[in-house]
Amino acid sequence: MIVSKENSKKYIELKNYLILKGDQTLYQNENYIFTETVNENLINIIRVLSAKSYPILLQGETSVGKTSLINWLASATGNKCLRINNHEHTDLSEYLGTYTCSSTNGQLIFQDGPLIKAMRYGWWIILDELNLASSDILEALNRLLDDNRQLYLSETNELINAHERFQLFATQNPAGEQYAGRKRLSRAFRNRFIELHFNNLPQNELEIIIEKKCQLPKTYSKLLIQTMIDLQKYRSQKGIFFGKSSLITLRDLFRWAQRYTLYKYSCDNYKQFLAEHGYLLLAGRSRNNDDRIFIKKIIEKYFCDKKISIDEQILFGDQGSPYSTRQIWILIKNNNQLKHIVWTQPLRRLAILCALSIQFDEPALLVGETGCGKTTVCEILSQINQQKLFTINCHTTTESADFIGSIRPVRRHDQSHTSDENQGLFEWQDGALVCSMKQGGLFLIDEISLADDSVLERLNSVLEPEKELVLAEKGYNDDDQHIDIIKAHEKFRLIATMNPGGDFGKKELSPALRNRFTEIWCTPSESIDDLYSIIIHNLKLNDENQQKECTKMMCDFIQYLRTISTTTKR
Questions:
Q1: Cβ–Cβ < 8 Å for 46, 70
Q2: Which of 211, 403, 461, 531 is deepest in the core (most CB within 10 A)?
Q3: Which residues have C-beta within 8 Å of that of residue 382, sequence separation ≥ 6?
Q4: pTM for this predicted structure
Q5: Alpha-carbon distance 231 to 294, whole Å?
């Protein structure tokens, strides 16, 4: 590209290509790791940007770095970058804008949406999970994707011309069974983009990324990669219907390595530490005992020797392991406000695994039958961590507004005898998620699988390490260039609960959404010893012998009912 001296200040050179420079401060994140594949992906994007402001579509598996690479490039070139998370019921107003209340007088006015804002001021915008949006929404963008780069705004009868620096990116996962709800875009629509494919990272590059990003010694990073490869081979052979990544994904791998980075206590054997946390992370979500045995076998193959072993009785025992569970369990069992809790082995396991996910800032997904203690554990942990618990109970008609908030009538007029002419009739009310993010609370999504996938996809950005949320539904303040982006408080944590799929028609979450969580399988307290402990703790009788006798009779009766139930099924 030949640029005159007058226009040279408008551009910045990257990888021997010139890109239009934004009006933000230039910042190249030195912690971002460039491997050979990542560097090739970056050069491909830069090459397109240097030619002309063509819309760019990035397609690839989850966690290959599509969105993070765009964000790095935006910061390096000084361009402000917005992100819209698409879902099946994405409305055009989330792109273009909607009527909202003014921040000064509360009156309803039209506020530009993030797409219109980006077009006016020359920002970059990412349409995340593009193939989740309906075809009607996508077709409305046709004129913007053409060479004229225009968009008609019917609400204001205005034809918007895109700023010179405006750049549109779209990202998507491949359509197919692994990614629920993803549709195949029409050839006519895809032809409007410059399409780039991001391949999975090879083994040697994964080792480099883990070593540098998580400050993990090279010898340990190799062990993590070898463990992942063996587990994926096992799943490919033994469980072809589950997919090779059902036992471990790239996100699991990074969480495993990140626990090494975030661990605050001193440790005299980090190999044992990694072995135990790898087992807790991977076997903790497994619903099949054979899978747990194989995971233990593979981890011990690479990490353990005569001095190192994985023992679940020690991990979840009364003393806990000094390398993983001891500090957490001591904190829980010594809490005087939890004397009413009967710590059966399954409940102890669940509390420890969930507490570890909170300690290492990982969103947790608790999967188990009704009554196994999922919600109780969340309440216990919020109490121990002195966090306010925000809860939303999902159902089939749950909407994004239930999480994020909406515009509602002002109700304080009913309580005031004086009227203010400048006081509007409507105002924005934050939802439970936004309140929790601002206050640093523990946010519980109960029965998450009952909500529509389209609603849950709206929360994707909150499940990322950045934990940000763009309130496109809110509109914006009177300052035209203000965008309301919520950055979560450092103490904010998110936990979701659900019953397993097939339980009275309940479904599983899509793999793309599940792997954003640290999944924990909750085993119920079904042994007679556990039931005896629970009953005798809650059966308040003055006579101790009578209390034990009644408890034994109740346990015998439960055992009898189980026998009848088993016989009937046969």
A1: no
A2: 403
A3: 388, 389, 441, 442
A4: 0.83
A5: 8
313: buried, middle or exposed (CB in 10 Å: 19+, 13-18, 0-12)? exposed
| AA identity, residue 467 | K
Q: Which residue has the tokens 């804002």?
A: 117
Give 552's Cβ-side CA count (13 Å radius): 6
User: CB-based contacts of 464: which residues, under 8 Å, 6+ apart?
Assistant: 516
Q: List the single range of 38-47, 221-230, 518-527 with lowest mean pLDDT.
A: 518-527
- How do residues 368-419 score in pLDDT, each as one tens digit? 998 888 999 999 999 999 999 999 999 989 988 899 988 787 776 555 444 5
Q: Which of 368, 340, 336 is nearest to 526 (CA)?
A: 368
Question: CA-CA distance, 34 to 39, in Å (whole number)?
Answer: 6
- Give the CA distances from residue 424 to residues 101, 255, 411, 418, 475, in Å, rounded to whole numbers and listed in that order: 8, 47, 11, 14, 16
Q: Averaged over 137-157, what is the pLDDT?
A: 90
Spatial neighbors of 50 by CB under 8 A, at least 6 apart, are: 1, 17, 18, 19
Q: Give me the count of residues in the chain.
A: 570
Token duo for residue 398: 């749950």
For 47-98, what is each residue's pLDDT tens digit? 999 988 899 999 998 778 899 999 999 999 999 999 888 877 788 888 998 8
Rounded to whole angstroms, the Cα distance separating 306 from 286 reads 26
Query: Tokens 């593009």 map to which residue?
Result: 130
Contacts of 328 (CB under 8 A, 6+ apart): 320, 352, 355, 356, 359
Helix (H, G, I), strand (E, B) or coil at 562: helix
Nearest to 189 by CA among 139, 128, 125, 136: 139
**Burial class of 434 by CB neighbour count within 10 A (0 to 12, 13 to 18, 19+):** buried
The pLDDT, as a whole number, for residue 239 is 52
Cβ-based neighbours of 61, under 8 Å, separated by 6 or more: 173, 174, 198, 200
**Structure tokens belonging to residue 411:** 């109700």
Give the three-state DSSP class for 183: coil
Contact 22, 78 (CB under 8 A): yes
**Interatomic CA distance for residues 521 and 233, integer angstroms:** 22
The span from the first CA to the last CA of the chain, in angstroms, equals 77
Helix (H, G, I), strand (E, B) or coil at 453: helix
How far apart, in whole angstroms, are the C-alpha atoms of residue 347 and residue 365?
15
Helix or strand (DSSP H, E) at 71: helix 66-77
For 191, 249, 299, 552, 557, the CA distances from 63, given in Å and listed in that order, are 25, 9, 23, 52, 51
**CA 522, 525, 530, 535 torsion: positive or negative?**
positive
Distances (CA, A) of 451 to 9, 96, 131, 447, 457: 50, 26, 20, 8, 10
d(C-alpha 337, C-alpha 335), whole Å? 6
The strand pairing partners of 182, in sequence order, are none
What's the angle, vertex CA 172, arms to CA 212 and CA 462, rounded to 5?
A: 60
CB burial of 360-372 (b: ≥16 within 10 Å; e: otherwise) equals bbbbbbbbbeeeb
Provide the β-strand partners of residue 498. 367
CB 257 within 8 A of CB 221: yes
Type of residue numbered 375: T
Separation between Cα atoms, residue 248 and residue 363, nearest integer Å: 16
